[in-house]
Amino acid sequence: MYLQRRNRILRKNAAIRNLVAETVLHPSNFIAPLFIDEGNNIAFEIPSMPGYYRRSIDGTVKEVKELWSMGIKAVLLFVKAADDTKDNTGKESWNPNGLMQRAIKAIKDAVPEIIIMTDVALDPYSSYGHDGIVKDGQIINDETVEALVKMSLSHATAGADMVAPSDMMDGRIGAIREAFEQNNFTQTGIMAYSAKYASCFYGPFRDALDSAPGFGDKKTYQMDYSNRLEAIKETMMDIEEGADIVMIKPAMSYLDIIREIKNAVDVPVSAYQVSGEYAMIKAASKMGWLQEDKAILESLTSIKRAGADLIATYFAKNALRILEEL
Ligand code: PBG
How far apart, in whole angstroms, are the C-alpha atoms of residue 258 and residue 254? Predict the structure, then answer.
C-alpha cells in the first residue's frame, strides 16, 4: 500500500505524542473550590462527594497551605452559614465578622500570595435557599443586586482578590464594579459566572452547603440549557459591565459553549467542573466501571481543549498528583 500521508506516525509512542500534544494541563490552570464551616477541627466528608470535605477555618488554612505548596494559585471559597443566621435579606453575607470574612482573613494571613476568590450569591444565607431576595414567590432582581454589592464590598474589605458572582441577577457585574470604583477597590477583580445554566449537576453542592431551594427551582435566573446565543449575550454583557474573567458552568455538558465563548471574547475564560460532574466520576470509579485517574485527566483536558484557560474543579489536587506521576 502506498500512502502519501500516514497520520499514525505522530502517535507512534508516548514521546512523539507528547511532542505534538495540543493541550497540556498545568497546575496554575486550576482553581480549588473550598467548603467552609463554623467550629474547630471539623472535617465533614460530603456524602454525595466522597473524598471531598467541608472544613472549619483551621483545617481550611492547612489545606490552602498544602494546595499552595503543590502549585495551586487560586481558591474559590464557599461557606455553610449557620441556620440561625439565615433570613430573606441575606444580611449575614456582609457581616464583617461572618464566616466568609473570617476565612478570607485567616487564609490571607497564612498564605498571602494565593488568589482568594469568593462566591457571591445569597443562597447559603437565604432562608428560602434562593440566590436572591424573595417577594411574593418571586426572586426579585434589583434589591438582590443591592445585597450582592454589600456582600462584594465586604469580601473586598476582608481581603478577597476577586469576587465571583454566581447568582445570575441582571446588572450585578456593573453594580459591583461601580461600587469597587467608588470605594477605591481598584485591585479587586470580578470573575463572573456569566453563562451559568440551571443544572441538575449542582445537586451534591447543595448537599455540601445545605442550600437547596426551599420552593421551586432556579430557572428564572439561571439559564435554560437549551440555549447557546443567550450564553454569548450574557457573557458579552458581563464583560462590558466590567468582568475580568468570565465563567461557564457546568463544564462537561457545555463544552460547545466554552468554545464559542472562547472564540468570542478577549478576557480569560474559566469553566467550572461542578459537584455532579465530580460525583459521576467518583461513583463510576467506585463501582469499578471507570478508572478514576484516567477519567479525571481526560475530563479536565477536554475542558481545557474546549477553550477554558482556568478550571474550577474538585479534582484540582488529584490532577496535580496525576500530572506529577505522568
Ligand atoms: C451558588 C452556587 C452553586 C454552585 C456554585 N455557586 C449552586 C447553585 O447555583 O445552586 C454550584 C457548584 C457545584 O455544583 O459544584 N449560587
Answer: 6
Residue 32 has a CB neighbour count (10 Å cut-off) of 25
C-alpha cell belonging to residue 279: 460525583
pTM of the model: 0.97
Atom 6 of ligand 1, residue of closest alpha carbon:
166
- DSSP-derived pairing of the beta strands 138-140 and 133-135: antiparallel
Annotated active-site residue 196? The verdict is: yes
Along the 326 residues of the chain, how does pLDDT read in single tens digits? 999 999 999 999 999 999 999 999 999 999 999 999 999 999 999 999 999 999 999 999 999 999 999 999 999 999 999 999 999 999 999 999 999 999 999 999 999 999 999 999 999 999 999 999 999 999 999 999 999 999 999 999 999 999 999 999 999 999 999 999 999 999 999 999 999 999 999 999 998 888 899 999 999 999 999 999 999 999 999 999 999 999 999 999 999 999 999 999 999 999 999 999 999 999 999 999 999 999 999 999 999 999 999 999 999 999 999 999 98
Of ligand 1's listed atoms, the one at least distance from the Cα of 196 is: 9
174 φ, ψ (degrees, to nearest 5) = -60, -40
In order of their start, the domains of the chain are 24-325 (3.20.20.70)
Q: Which residues does ligand 1 sit against, CB inside 6 Å? A: 119, 121, 123, 131, 166-167, 202, 205-206, 218, 274-275
